[in-house]
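Obj: model holo form, ligand = adenosine-5'-triphosphate.
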Amino acid sequence: MQYLAYILRQTARNLRLAWGTQLMTLLTVTLSVLIFAFFFLIYTNMMKAGERLGDDVRIIVYLDDEIVPQMRPQIERKIREFSEVEKIVFISRQNAFEKLGKQLAEEKDVLNDLGPYFLPPSIEIYPLKTLKNLTHINQFSEYLQTLPGVSKVQYGREWLKRFGYFTSLLRLVVLLSGGLLIMSMTFIVSYTIRLTVVSRHEELEILRLLGASSAYIRMPLLLEGLLQGLLGSTLGLGALFILYQWICRRFSGPGLLHLFDFTFFAPEIIAAILFAGILLCTAGSLFSIRRFIRI
Amino acid sequence: MHTSTADNKPLIELVKVSKVYPPDVLALEDVSLQVLRGEILFLTGMSGAGKTTLLKLICSIETPTKGLIEVAGRDLSKIKPAGIQLMRQKIGVAYQDFKLINKLTVMQNIAMAMEVTYKSKGEIKKRIMELLDTLKLTDKVNKPAGELSRGEQQRVALARAAANSPTLLLADEPTGNLDPAATDLVVKLFKQLNESGSTIVIATHDEKIYEETDYRVMDLHYGHISTHTGKNKPRQIDLFESHRA
Ligand SMILES: Nc1ncnc2c1ncn2[C@@H]1O[C@H](COP(=O)(O)OP(=O)(O)OP(=O)(O)O)[C@@H](O)[C@H]1O
Ligand SMILES: [Mg+2]
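Output (holo structure tokens):
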């Protein structure tokens, strides 16, 4: 109990004594979290949008000739060699003809003279609805084009390709800002703790002579890092939430945002970001403690 | 404490201890010495004789180059850092250079020693006021240590060393800056601590505090023990007033 009281008192003292530095650190941590979480929020929303868009994505491979049923497993294997897919449907000339007839309904008489042979047989491929697959759809179709007996490959629309580029770019930004987050947090916190250690150097040395346990000396510093992490991540996420609400209000009504159905992080993700923030800052202070304190 | 079986063993035992400061300063050479529980021992010797070094070896601030040091029956070289810290909580040291923090108040400086052992706030305050009263420093309690005179700082350093009523008190030149009146206060504190069970080792030039006692006086001369006087009396016999008998 006395131990806890001391640790808390000492931590409060450290924070108070160098409040300017502490505030700068807090600001840096908050901004890092805000920047990272902002891009991550957009990314997760794009992912969700991608999944919904993926529902009507399919690749149609037109063939020169009908495939005999015995050949199907072999072709399926070839397709799956490139990438796992959700479903493969073989459409014979006859199937295609019937489908067209159904689409034309009343006017299907026009087909009477043609017979099923004017439509090419095809394979419909439904890719897995993950973003990775959707963004690689271009390469996939190029691969399909190289298979023997394929006359033409058709898929989605131009924007799907753009969507793919955009999400790849966004993923890069998320990764970069994530890296920035890790570096700035651990670095700035370990730097701040180092300042605390340096400014309290004399005191820490005397504590050592007085028989202070290693935990007694280190815990307040560790707690300082932990608090920076907790407070910084909370503030960063809080700021993002305010920004999020502003965006929602600003762009409400029909428009781009509705396509994406903009939502905030799930509670698990919020917890994960908080946890990561605390972990990184604590790691930063631990680094300085191990480096600059002997006992 | 003094009734336990460990009582018969010396609290401090040095066997052929040498200390060389790099590169080649021989501060102590083949020093052997025992300090019994409850004893008061005076370490004398001219400047540079190795008194401070000897005290630093006992509280493990320095490690010996050669030889064995046991405190309370334990070989210091075999105690892990955490154990050394625990041991230091039971050893009060008044350093020759005080080692006070100038910007902290007298109260805060002394409290550090007691906070380290997790004493309660109330207990800390009570004990500090008691000590400052003994040393006539009550009016300085909230002054920064840096604003005190050398003599006052010296007494604060002593109060900090005595704060936890340590099993062992090491005092390095405790009266060096004190006038006779203040010296008497310090001697009185030593007596009090010794009566309540503390073993005390005092390194000093100040003949006045040991000339009229029967406590053991050990004279260091260039890192060697040269003379050894006194009767090795345990603490039960109060030697500050022994000439009464
Ligand atoms: N940290 C050190 N590094 C190198 N040499 C040292 C160190 N500390 C002490 N010495 C040397 O060791 C010898 C003994 O020093 P010590 O401080 O033990 O003497 P002392 O008896 O306490 O002297 P004084 O009465 O002046 O305090 C001296 O020659 C001193 O110069
Ligand atoms: Mg000395």
